[in-house]
Amino acid sequence: GDKVTVWVVEATSDKFLLSLVQARAPRPESAKTSTGDVMVLKPLAGGDAWLDATVESMTDYGVFVTLRPPGCVEELKGLVYKTQIKAGFDGSPEGAFTVGEAVRVRVLSIKDSRLALSMKEKKDDQPLLSAQFKAELSPFEDIAGLPDEWLTGRVVSSTLYGVFVAVKPPGGGQEEARGLVPIKYIADAFIADVAQAAPLGKEVRVRVLSVDAEKGRLALSMLSEASVAGLPKPADPVNLSKFIPFAGTDEWLDGIVDGRSVFGAFVKVKSPDDESVAASGMVHITEMADGFVERVEDVVNVGQEVRVRVLSVDTAARRLTLSMKMPDTSAESQRESREKKEPNDVSPWLGLSQKEWLVGKVVRIANYGAFVEVDRPNGAVGPRCTGMVHISQVQENFVDDVAEVLEIGQTVQVRVVMLDVKAGRMALSMVNADVAKKDSPTAEAEDPSVGR
After folding, report:
1. pTM value?
2. Are 300 and 288 in contact (CB under 8 A)?
3. What's the pLDDT score for residue 94?
4. Of 100, 189, 260, 389, which has the most beta carbons under 10 Å away?
5. Using CA atoms, how far apart are residues 245 and 390, in angstroms rounded to an integer?
6. How far is CA 143 from CA 169, 205, 213, 225, in A?
7. Residue 405: exposed, middle, or buried by beta-carbon count in 10 A (0-12, 13-18, 19+)?
8. Which residues contact 272 (CB under 8 A, 6 or more apart)?
9. 176 DSSP 8-state letter
10. DSSP codes of every residue in 79-127
11. Is 36 helix (H, G, I), strand (E, B) or coil?
């Protein structure tokens, strides 16, 4: 019966979250970021999409985390209230987490630039046909099982076993139906993360496998009948190392848009060095045009041919980042372009063993790696050559920022792992050959020599 003073932490239409300690009450700016960045997550609010985050601090009422969605320049900060940590959680967040701990979160809501998040699984017992998707399933029965009847839809939620896609009935209509694409029908390669393979909001093409109108079930496939039948499949996983020599260069690649999301477009490209290697990369919405782009669909359509440049390659995360924008025309960029006008003469390094170490000097650092001038092999006299050490080849352990490991003018030891005489390109590595071979999904023969 004691009277106490409380502070309102959060209020909704049907409940209040209160605090007995004023100092612990969240300040408005504590969960704020720039409105533009936060609104990027608006399409994910209330959905099933999971995002990687890092614990920043803990309070009696919840956990503050930071996250950086794909393509966002700034980190976003959000709050996971105690009630959203997990079902039945009744402990102290301060005792359950540590600062810097990696967690996964869903977006609950965005209000006044405040980001409310959850670590709880969304209930899987929701009906497959929710009130939002009212289309009758009977029209889909006419095309069920037909190999060449494709529909265009968008991913609206994901689970461990597949993704749900919203589609309109064949022949038109304004209302949508929701169907399930089982994980084995999303791609003809191994899928480690469903949400990454088919992100929320991505536009996809699907076929109807089966319809059970009585139970409200619609089974879909993103694979052709030929792929399902077991025709030759691409390597698993795709060897993105083939794209490393083109990262950060002005070289353009031809590609085809194979998907769209609220963040940008997915473009399939082939490696100029090996056209049998094809990969899908992400063009963030900020890299689609020089001016402001409000909606991805205003710029590209699925199936459209586009030209892209490789911005970065992350082989560990199997991530290829692309751009449709012209290279930077700043004074510094133009100076670097003039310096690179004449291609390197890399021919003296042909036939060199990939296990042989050379002395080099760091001459430039970029966010994707470092450029190193190397001596000629075997003590030969002549001009040095500049090659690139990709960020994944700087050291055995993960590198987040090249500048934290290397500095301009530093003397380093490197190995030559790839040469392109025609283009004057040299790819280097600071990682031991045995380690690189063990970690590589496509390790080559013992002690290969470089040459092309």
Report:
1. 0.31
2. yes
3. 79
4. 389
5. 8
6. 10, 14, 14, 14
7. middle
8. 246, 251, 253
9. -
10. EEEGGGTSTT--S-HHHH--TT-EEEEEEEEEETTEEEEE-SPPPTTS-
11. helix
The C-alpha atoms of residue 50 and residue 198 are separated, in whole angstroms, by: 12
pLDDT for the residue numbered 450: 61
Per-residue burial over 285-312, b if 16 or more Cβ lie within 10 Å, else e, is bebbeeeebeebeebbebeeebebbbbb
The residue count of the chain comes to: 452
**What separation in angstroms does the CA of 356 have from each of 185, 395, 409, 425?**
45, 17, 22, 18
Separation of alpha carbons 180 and 166, rounded Å:
9
CB 417 within 8 A of CB 427: yes
Degrees (nearest 5) of the Cα angle 258, 240, 244?
115
Q: Is 259 in contact with 295 (CB distance < 8 Å)?
A: no
Of all helices (H) and strands (E), which one includes residue 8?
strand 7-11
**Taking the CB of residue 188, how many other CB atoms lie within 10 A of it?**
18
* Pairwise CA distance, residues 225 & 208, whole Å: 11
CA-CA-CA-CA dihedral for 334, 340, 342, 345, to nearest 10 = 180
pLDDT digits (tens, 9 = 90+) for 27-69: 434 434 333 467 777 777 777 777 888 888 888 788 888 887 7
Q: Which amino acid is at 362?
A: V
**DSSP annotation string for 364-414:** EEETTEEEEEEPPGGG--S--EEEEEEGGGS-SS--S-GGGT--TT-EEEE
H/E stretch holding 274? strand 274-284
Q: Are 71 and 312 spatial neighbours (Cβ–Cβ below 8 Å)?
A: no
d(CA 183, CA 186): 5
The candidate with the shortest Cα–Cα distance to 119, out of 109, 107, 111, 128, is 107
Count the Cβ atoms, other than its own, within 10 Å of residue 8: 10
Q: pLDDT by residue (tens digit) across 200-232? A: 788 899 999 999 888 778 999 998 876 665 534
Residue 191: what pLDDT?
67
In the chain, the N- to C-terminal Cα span, in Å, equals: 84
